[in-house]
Amino acid sequence: MKEVVYLSELEKIARLSKLGFSAEELQSFLRDINDIVAHFEKLNQLDLQDVSPTSHLGGGEPPFFSDEPQAWEGSEEVLKGAPWVAGGYFIVPRIVDKEEKENEDRRI
């Protein structure tokens, strides 16, 4: 099996997500992810030239919903469980590390 996702990438994603995994768990995830990618590579080999694209499996037109703002009465209940709240919004810690910040600066 050709490795497409590398252990170093998986470790970085886990670190940025602040998830702790054992070496065995990371190896298992790595195998699973690479198996999934290999499956998609097999699907990419299919000859689909005579197959029309499908955008909606249910048939008919896609459902449309109004795009009008609506008041929601449950926000206070949801915010009760948050560790930090200000002005009706969740406050979350910044998680960009030095390496990510340097890469961000290069994109500007």
Task: Describe the overall structure.
- 44% of the residues lie in helices and 4% in strands.
- The protein has 108 residues and is mainly alpha-helical.
- Among the domains are: 7-44, no CATH class; 75-107, no CATH class.
- Strand 1 and strand 2 (89-90) form a beta hairpin.
- The longest helix is centred in the N-terminal third of the chain and has 22 residues, at 23-44.
- 0% of the residues are buried.
Low-confidence stretches: none
- Helix/strand/pairing class, anyone? mainly alpha
The helix content is: 40-55%
Mean pLDDT over the residues: 84
Overall spatial form? flat
Strand content: under 5%
Largest sheet: 2 strands, antiparallel
Descriptors for this entry?
108 residues, mainly alpha, two-stranded antiparallel sheet, 4 helices, 44% helix, flat
